[in-house]
Every structure is written in C-alpha cells, then in structure tokens.
C-alpha cells in the first residue's frame, strides 16, 4: 500500500484566478476546485473516504481534509498513485508519508494506588490557590494527540471525553468510541492535564485522538493529519467556536535522524499544520524531546509552538530534557519548562477494574503540566488565545537560574 499527502500550495491558479488559501472570501473558489479534483480522482477509480464509511483495505482511496486543506491518498496500484500525483501536482505539494515518534518517557514505577501526597506538587505555582478560587480550566478545550485515553479510569470517568481512534491505515473507518488506551502514555498525559485528583486543570474539555501505537510509540504524518483534522472539526462545532483552544503534542522527531531527501518534506508538512493552528488562534504546546542538551526536536522549535522542557521538583533541568537553538528562529529552545521528573498520574486499570497510577519522567509529562497552566489562564481570560496566550505564559513564567537553552523563560506558573 502506497500513501502520500498532498498539501495545498499557498498560491495557486484556478480557472485563471490567482487565489490565496488563507483568504476566506476565496473559499467558494477553493471548494469548487476541490469538487473538480474529487471528480477526477473518482474517475481514476479512487473511492472517497468519509468518516462514517468503512473503506475496504484493498481499495484505492482518497480523503479531503477541508480544514487543513490537504488530500490523503492511498492505493496498492502504483500506476493509480502516479496518476493521482499528476492530478494534484499543480495545486498541491506532494509529500510522502513520514514516521514520527513520541519522545520515549521513562516509566519510573507503575501499578501504584492513589495517595494525595503523591500529588503534593499541585500545591505549587499557583495551582492549589487557583483551584480554591474555582479556577479549574472550565470552558477551555484541550485537544490531545497521543496513544489514547482510558475514559473509565477513576481520574477521568467523571468527564465527557470526545475520543477517536485513528487506525494504522487512516483512510479506513475511524472509531469514535469511549476512550481507551492500551499503552497508558496518553492516559498519564490526560491525567496531568485534567485528572480529578492529579490534574492541573480538572474541568477542561478533552478531545483525544489516538494516533500513536502502543508497541512502538510511533506514528505517521498521515495519522497526525487525520487525527488533527478530527480534533479541529470538534473545535469548530457551533458551541465551541468562541472557547479558548489548546493542542497538547508529546511527539516529534529529530532532524538529524531524517535522511536529507525527506527532511524538507517533513518540515513542509509540519509547518502547514502549525500555520493553520496559528491562523485559527489555537495554542500548540509541544514537547522539546528527551535527547538531552544541544538537541531540539521538531515541531517544538517552530515559532508558533510553545516548546516545553522538563525540570524536577527542585527546579533543576532534567538531564534528558532537550534544548538548543531553533534552526528556524535562531532563538534558544525550549520556551518554557514544566515538571517532568517522577510525575504521578493515571495509567491504566487492572482486570478487577481497579484504577492504577504510575510515576513517569519525560518532556511528555512536562508538556501536559504546561498545557494545564495555559488552560487556567485561558479560563480566566478567554479572550487570550493562540499567540497571545503563548506570550502570556512566557511572561508569567517563574524565572530559574539556568541558561535559556535549558529552561527558557522558566517554570510555567499561574499568576493571574
């Protein structure tokens, strides 16, 4: 099976009219162009995938991602793939499917029962005071791209969690079901963001797309695109239009691990995602990676992202926490840090349905802490969205006595 993404070029010509995809008055033109493209692909034997349609694995399929303005195309016949690329090449940039992975966290200890003292860190940095004043993230939407989320874990069972599993072959039917997680990484992340006892912002609304495999903690560009498109469709629901929105991303890749031939394609795909989030006033909070000093991961170092490193409870940078200079902006990364060492949160349930917890370390754990702090700010000042919320987080960070390429502006801190 061959797959690729086709990204709408910033400027393209349709029937002699030059248009810019970021211009809303041109939407009718873009839709007309898409309808024409859909018809051509269908004539070539491609089946259009729909969210409710069970697509046969062997079929040649395509899906139009309206919000991200991209096509995902899949087929076993290389001649059909070649024909589809020919149809799309003038208006779209063709990008191969690429592999990404979670910055692998360290599972310190698992199978733990809940104990209030394990969450004593929630009394720091304005969190306990915020909760006592009723500031808990209510009215804020948080999208999570991860391994999933166990919606029946006691930390999360009192919440309505929008959940979708994005399959290994993303053009097959998506499963919008009650949240599950066979790894625990996503459940741990969600617990830090919104757990009843372990969460920084326990009343945020969670929208979780399972896009990362439990066995390898790997994913692909296509799965991220399809999962993000689904989250954005939920964000755009009428009842959610004016709410602050945050995306938690504990994933990325190190450019030095990508062959030069695929590096530009990877960057183009991710930049397209982040420019879209920026245009929609959505704040992406992204882990900087676990490869240590002088190594930074994409997409955390993109200018639209709030990049996150990790410190321990003594406010010392974790040895594994990434840092360095962004190759795009030339500025030090990470932008900010969060607690990321021995973090206690939800993990899984056993066969007796007992909710279990774990201590984990990684920038994957620091990222949801920062997301939670951002949600507290956004619930108090809902007019602060996207880049404005990002700047507020940096301005309010607690300064630490370490270099910018280790801790950025400092520790995420809730000071209204």
Explain the layout of strands and helices.
Elements: E1 2-8, E2 11-14, E3 17-20, H1 27-43, E4 47-48, E5 61-65, E6 70-75, H2 78-88, E7 92-96, E8 99-101, E9 106-112, H3 127-132, E10 141-146, E11 162-165, H4 185-194, E12 205-210, E13 218-220, H5 221-235, E14 245-249, H6 260-279, E15 283-287, E16 306-311, E17 324-325, E18 332-333, E19 336-339, E20 343-349, E21 355-361, H7 363-380, H8 386-396, H9 404-407
Parallel strand pairs: 4-5, 10-12, 10-14, 11-12, 14-15, 15-16, 16-19
Antiparallel strand pairs: 1-6, 1-7, 2-3, 5-6, 8-13, 9-21, 17-18, 20-21
Helix pairs in contact: 4-7, 7-8
Class by SSE composition: alpha/beta
- What's the order of the H and E elements? EEEHEEEHEEEHEEHEEHEHEEEEEEEHHH
Indicate the mean pLDDT.
89
Contiguous low-pLDDT stretches (5 residues minimum) are: 11-23
Q: What is the end-to-end distance?
A: 52 Å
Q: What characteristic shape results from the CA principal axes?
A: globular
- Strand tally: 21
Spatial order of strands in the largest sheet: 11-12-10-14-15-16-19
What is the rounded Rg?
A: 21 Å
């Amino acid at each position: 099976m061959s797959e690729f993404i086709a990204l709408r070029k910033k400027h393209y010509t349709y029937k002699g009219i030059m248009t810019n995809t970021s211009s809303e008055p041109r939407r009718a033109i873009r839709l007309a162009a898409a309808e024409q493209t859909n018809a051509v692909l269908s004539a070539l034997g491609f089946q259009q995938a729909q969210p409710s349609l069970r697509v046969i694995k062997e079929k040649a399929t395509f899906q139009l991602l309206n919000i991200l303005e991209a096509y995902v195309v899949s087929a076993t016949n290389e001649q059909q793939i070649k024909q589809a690329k020919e149809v799309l090449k003038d208006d779209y940039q063709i990008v191969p499917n690429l592999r990404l992975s979670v910055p692998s966290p360290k599972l310190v200890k698992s199978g733990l029962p809940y104990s209030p003292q394990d969450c004593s860190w929630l009394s720091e940095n304005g969190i306990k005071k915020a909760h006592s004043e009723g500031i808990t993230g209510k009215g804020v939407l948080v999208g999570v791209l991860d391994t999933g989320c166990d919606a029946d874990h006691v930390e999360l069972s009192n919440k309505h969690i929008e959940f979708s599993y994005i399959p290994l072959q993303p053009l097959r039917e998506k499963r919008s079901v009650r949240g599950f997680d066979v790894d625990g990484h996503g459940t741990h992340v969600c617990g830090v963001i919104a757990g009843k006892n372990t969460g920084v912002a326990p009343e945020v609304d969670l929208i979780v797309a399972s896009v990362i495999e439990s066995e390898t903690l790997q994913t692909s560009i296509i799965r991220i695109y399809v999962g993000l498109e689904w989250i954005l469709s939920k964000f755009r629901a009428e009842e959610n239009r004016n709410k602050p929105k945050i995306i938690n991303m504990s994933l990325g890749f190190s450019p030095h691990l990508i062959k030069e031939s695929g590096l530009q394609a990877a960057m183009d795909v991710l930049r397209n995602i982040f420019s879209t989030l920026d245009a929609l006033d959505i704040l992406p909070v992204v882990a900087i990676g676990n490869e240590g000093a002088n190594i930074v991961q994409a997409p955390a170092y993109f200018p639209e992202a709030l990049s996150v490193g990790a410190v321990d409870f003594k406010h010392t940078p974790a040895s594994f926490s990434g840092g360095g200079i962004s190759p795009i902006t030339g500025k030090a990364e990470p932008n900010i840090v969060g607690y990321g060492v021995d973090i206690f949160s939800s993990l899984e349930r056993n066969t007796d349905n007992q909710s279990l917890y774990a201590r984990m370390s990684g920038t994957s754990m620091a990222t949801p802490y920062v997301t939670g702090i951002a949600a507290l700010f956004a619930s108090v000042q809902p007019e602060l969205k996207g880049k404005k919320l990002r700047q507020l987080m940096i301005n309010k960070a607690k300064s630490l006595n370490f270099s910018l390429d280790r801790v950025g502006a400092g520790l995420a801190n809730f000071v209204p």
